Structure formats: C-alpha cells, structure tokens
Amino acid sequence: KISHEDAPVVTEVITILKNRYDNFKKAMSITRGKVHEYLGMTLDFVTTGKVKIDMTKFVSKMIEGMPSEMLGESTTPAASYLFTVNSKCDKLSEEMSAIFHRLTAQGLFLCARGRPDIETSIAFLTTR
Fold first, then answer.
1. Which backbone phi and psi does 53 adopt, to 5 degrees?
2. Are 63 and 70 in contact (CB under 8 A)?
3. SS3 of 1, please?
4. Which residue from 30, 54, 61, 79 could staple onto 42, CB 3.0 to 4.6 Å apart?
5. CA triplet 112, 115, 116: central angle to 5 degrees?
6. Mean pLDDT score of the chain, rounded to an integer?
C-alpha cells in the first residue's frame, strides 16, 4: 500500500513501479479508495483508524469449487470422528485427490488469516 497526502506523489510512485514491474505476462493492478481486494481478503479502511478484513468471497469460492457430494452443513468444524482413519477404504481418484489437496491448502490459508477455529481439522487433513 502506498499512501501520501499529495495524490500526485502516489501517481508518480505508481508510474515508476509500473515502468519497472509491468510486463507482458502480468500487469500490475492498482486500486484507489478505501476498499481493496488482496490475497482473498477484502480490506476495508472506511472507518478512520480501523480496518475491517473480510474473507467471505474467498470462502464462497472454496465452496463453489467443492464437488456436490462434499456440500453440507455442520455446527462444528471438527466432528467427533475427525481422527478416526479407515485404513481399508479405497484411495481417492487422481481428480478427487487434486481437489482434496487444493481445498486443504485453501483451508490452511484461511485458518491462518481468519478462521482459527478450523485449524485442528485442517492440521489433521494436511497429514492425509
């Protein structure tokens, strides 16, 4: 985040950065204002002296990426049988394995930033 009381100074710094780091593979994104999207988080600086961090969109994208058989509701992030492992079950298909690992990685990112209540479940899933 670049901040300065004079808007032209910010524009000058952005121009320098764009000239240095913009390339044909990926353009630099620039937002101005009090609400920004960054790494799956919505950063809201509307209230002076405070920031509101919202990851609702990130969670919604996670849910949209789940197979329909995984959708459901729970009152707690960790069921009583969380640590019970069925060693006789079939291995996941390559496609389901990729989905499982992607969702586990997204959950790990989420629990580190906004949902510490899912940390136990995600920690166990990272061992699978």
1. -110, 125
2. no
3. coil
4. 54
5. 65
6. 86
State the pLDDT confidence band at 5, using cuts at 50, 70 and 90. confident
Q: What is the mean pLDDT of residues 8-15?
A: 87
Q: How far apart are CA 117 and CA 128, in angstroms?
A: 19
Residue 9 is inside which H or E element, if any?
helix 7-21
Nearest residue to 2 via CA among 22, 38, 31: 31
Q: At what angle do helices 56-64 and 94-113 cross, to 10 degrees?
A: 170
pLDDT of residue 24: 66
Q: How far is CA 39 from the centre of its chain?
A: 6
